[in-house]
Design a protein that fits this description.
Helix 6 (134-142) packs parallel to helix 7. Strands 7-6-5-4-3-2-1-8 form an eight-stranded parallel β-sheet. It is α/β, with parallel strands linked by helices. Strand 6, helix 7 (165-183) and strand 7 form a beta-alpha-beta unit. The protein has nine helices and eight strands. It is 40% helix and 17% strand.
Amino acid sequence: MRVAEKLKQINQQINEACLKVHRTADEVKLIAVTKYVSTERAREALDAGIKNLGENRDDGLLEKWKVLKDKPHWHYIGTLQTRKVKNIIDKVDYIHSLDRLSLAEEINKRANHKVKCLVQVNITGEESKHGLSPDEAISFIGSLQPFENIRIEGLMTMAPLTDDDQILRDCFRKLRELRDQVQALHLNFAPCTELSMGMSGDFTIAIEEGATMVRIGTALVGENG
């Protein structure tokens, strides 16, 4: 199926989820995760009207950047190795996976502008997932104040792989509550308005719980395009 057709279906689902909780669809940024698809499929996504592309490896991003340049807004959504920061720092609009001080130091050193970052939080404590624990997140954000090239736009999490809607809902709700705690601190370097949560199988629940960014790959661009 063409991306444009899939996009129509996804947009309808976003609208329906927003209506259920009295939100509007323009509050939700749709990120097409293109990590498993070709540059041509990513271009098709842009042609369909998608403005945000997400990549989780520096080489995948750089390969597509050579062709697409800055036509999309690029989101780096995967674990970012400190030594790879220099490869992508001047090409991405958002880094969704800030989770340690050494990475913050490297981003701050390499950037010549304020980089929009989201702090990755491992809400469920799964060993297979990266991110700070909820208990660590607020103090970590506070430690970033000296870094003039970092702006904390929000929080990101990856939900468990489960068909239990209540487990998913609880995960997303906890991230929203943590975001609200950060906002209550009124930190000028960390407005923390964004919630990056929800993927192909659970994005409607994430939207109902407050997601402002959803990262959709398989359901939107497919794995083999």
